[in-house]
Amino acid sequence: MKRIVVNLLVIMTTVTTYANTRVHFEVSFKEPQAHYAEIKMEISGLRKDYIDVKMPVWTPGSYLVREYSRHVESVEACSANGDPMDVEKTSKNTWRIASNKSDNVIIHYRIYGFEVSVRTNFIDDVHAFLSPAATFMYVDGMIDHPVEVTVIPHPSWSKISTGLKPVAGKPGTFSAKDFDILFDSPIEVGNQDIFTFDAAGVHHEIAMVGGGNYDRERLKSDCAAIVEEATSVFGVNPNKRYVFIVHNFQSGGGGLEHLNSTVLGASRNGYQNERSYVGFLGLVAHEYFHLWHVKRLRPIELGPFNYDAENYTTALWIMEGFTAYFDNLILRRSGFMNEATYLQALANDVNAVENRAGQRVQPVALASFDAWIKHYRPDENSANTSVSYYNKGALLAMMLDLQILAATNGEKRLDDVLKVAYEEFYIKKKRGFEEHELQALIEQIATISVADIFRAAHTVEPLDYNHYLNAVGYQLIDYNSGRELPDFGMSTSVTDGRIMVTGVTRGTGAWDGGINVRDEIIAINGERLDANNKEMTRFLQSASIGDVAKVLIARDGKVRELEITLGKEKKGVFNIVPLQNATPEQEKLGKIWLSLE
């Protein structure tokens, strides 16, 4: 009993200590042209012998240890009256401050930011984009502590865009109830073009950075349509305010989801090109869908987060894959894609999966688990060893959707599952789900077994697409089926007039014969290849499967000849088309699937 009382006293003392503690940051920009920001971190009310402050090593939504602390420099600490305190770095992302029970500790440090992406800092003389996990330290053990941030723009800047909650009466100051919220709230500082719209009962802000040929009114209208369609899946929108931060580059892309905001990359002059514009809207749909599906409805492993190391899950095929399925489906429902365009988008996923040798090596659940070491670090052999949890996950989501539609005669579909799962796990149980729980929920709603699809996520067995597509009046066809086409099994590109090998496919003639990535292909059977690679095409058009070609290559400055046996072209050319002689029931389900009525 005495030990219990002592432990309770320790806990109560700790809670009281933290309750009286205040953490405040000030961000300023003395040398933005050199890509630096100055950070002042003030910790008051935490009277300890020493304080450990840490920088996250990764940011949620981007599953790679990025070592943000490598861009931290000049860490110094002092008391409120300026007395210096010793600072010792104790690990790659931890600094120990000898605070000596001081009531007020002030830490100064600088961060360097010059990497263009949606998950890293970028600072120059025009603007600053701050990824909070790459910017703000936290007190060890106090992730759940409230925090305030004051942003002091450079004199040439006038605007701040962020999903953080403004503090009344304090210009440029924002609050977060804990560091999880702070790390999930990117900040854009500069002179961005800001405009707003309301949709699904939520006030939305769009901050356009870098200019562009966009049409404000069209963007507001089209983004509102996407917001309404995404919200209709779950039946409720959990936000009162949402911020789109859009970085416009000469050529750009990518996005990262956050709790009530997102960061998108786009091509500044691509808005007037219809294909490019619809692609951008697809990115909007993808990241917006994430505000439910991953930020709230999530695998149990993805929160609370450990910011010191990898957070493993096998369920990214569900989180990213399902989202990749719904982003195009939302475009279809919103009228931005017609039937043929939508089916081609699905077929593109089939082509990406089926024409990748790695899909017979790595299950998509393992691809999810290995995202930390594979997805963000591709190399010349990745296509032979891995599969994308985006593409294959989207196809498994399609199969689930079609299976549920068929089993319930069109009364239910994957939307209904996600809506119930959101209510069950996020709202009621206030936790993430385990994969078997989601499978059980689907089976409860559809009143059928979906074990085949969940098993497919954990194996490399071929997917029987037509088993599911036929049920709704469609079929997958391969235009290369039955064709006997010779192939080396390598991809090439022309660099400075030289034909260079960029990829070698497992199990092909090039693979077996020893062709390497970065080999220069000089000649085939004594015929010098031209810089446009027309001779290679001409050779393949006249060759036959089984022919042995003498390929002259240059590797690391040395010339050698290899004998390569031509194999059969293994890659398919897939498309999804209406099923001939479909029954009325199949046609009815197909129309429900594609919102054709």
Mean pLDDT: 96
Give the beta-strand count.
Answer: 31
Query: How many distinct folded domains?
Result: 4
Please report the first level of CATH classification, the CATH class of the largest domain: Mainly Beta
**Rg over alpha carbons:** 27 Å
Tally of individual helices: 16
Largest sheet: 8 strands, mixed
Shape: globular
CATH fold naming of the largest domain: Immunoglobulin-like
Strand-residue fraction?
A: 25-35%
**Strand arrangement, major sheet:** 5-4-8-2-1-12-15-14
**Percent helix among the residues?**
25-40%
Span of the ends, CA to CA: 70 Å
Second CATH tier, the architecture of the largest domain: Sandwich
Structural class: alpha+beta
Architecture overview:
Helix 3 (216-234) packs across helix 5. The strands form eight sheets. The chain has an eight-stranded mixed beta sheet. It is an alpha+beta fold. The chain contains 16 helices and 31 strands. The protein has four domains: 17-190, Immunoglobulin-like; 193-274, Zincin-like; 316-477, Neutral Protease, domain 2 (Orthogonal Bundle), CATH 1.10.390.10; 486-568, Roll (Pdz3 Domain), CATH 2.30.42. Helix content is 31%, strand content 26%. Mean pLDDT is 96; it is low at 8-16. The termini are far apart. Strand 14 and strand 15 (173-176) form a beta hairpin.
In short:
This protein has 597 residues and is an alpha+beta fold. The chain is built from 16 helices and 31 strands.
Question: Mind sketching the topology for me?
Answer:
Layout: H1 2-19, E1 22-28, E2 36-44, E3 51-54, E4 72-79, E5 84-85, E6 87-91, E7 94-97, E8 104-112, E9 122-123, E10 128-130, E11 138-139, E12 147-151, E13 159-162, E14 165-166, E15 173-176, H2 179-183, E16 187-190, E17 193-199, E18 202-209, H3 216-234, E19 241-249, E20 255-257, E21 261-267, H4 274-289, H5 316-334, H6 339-354, H7 364-369, H8 382-385, H9 391-407, H10 414-428, H11 435-446, H12 451-456, H13 465-469, E22 474-478, E23 486-487, E24 490-495, E25 498-504, H14 509-513, E26 520-524, E27 527-528, H15 534-542, E28 548-555, E29 558-565, E30 567-568, E31 574-578, H16 584-594
Parallel strand pairs: 1-12, 18-19, 19-21
Antiparallel strand pairs: 1-2, 2-8, 3-7, 3-11, 4-5, 4-8, 6-7, 9-10, 10-16, 12-15, 13-16, 14-15, 17-18, 20-21, 22-31, 23-30, 24-25, 26-27, 26-28, 28-29
Helix pairs in contact: 3-4, 3-5, 4-5, 5-6, 5-9, 6-9, 10-11
